[in-house]
Design a protein that fits this description.
Elements lengths: L2 H12 L15 E5 L3 E2 L3 E5 L5 E4 L11 E2 L19 E4 L9 E6 L7 E7 L2
Parallel strand pairs: 1-4, 3-8
Antiparallel strand pairs: 1-2, 4-6, 5-7, 7-8
Length: about 120
């Protein structure tokens, strides 16, 4: 767990139920879901080789959300992904540390309107 992820976990634990605005939506390496079935930003940035965390703060949609790259590898698997997580949960976005420099579109597999772009920059 990175220092940013650990600090975010502690902050989330201290939040009241409706305090989703208190989580910094534009923190590098953090992607946040907010009401109603939306990502807080349409994109986020990480340094090449870095990690990223997805936080679900959507207090309205109770079915959960995930993050999946639209691009796939040679076995037709997403380049990066998370499991579907429930409200007030967080998950590491698996696979981002192996990405080359560039931009990668992503989506929520349960909500087609939830889309964005991950940009990988030089370390």
């Amino acid at each position: 767990m990175t220092r940013v992820t650990a600090a975010l976990a502690l902050a989330m634990a201290a939040l009241p139920a409706a305090a989703d605005a208190a989580v910094p939506a534009n923190t590098p390496g953090i992607l946040v879901a907010v009401p109603i079935s939306a990502y807080a930003t349409t994109g986020f940035t990480i340094e090449q080789g870095g990690s990223a965390t997805f936080v679900n703060l959507d207090e309205v949609t109770f079915v959960g959300h995930d993050v999946r790259s639209k691009a796939t590898d040679g076995s037709n698997r997403p380049l990066f992904t998370t499991p579907v997580i429930k409200t007030r949960e967080m998950a590491e976005i698996e696979g981002v540390s192996a990405l080359a420099l560039g931009s990668y579109e992503y989506r929520c597999s349960l909500h087609s309107a939830m889309t964005g772009t991950l940009t990988v920059t030089p370390a």
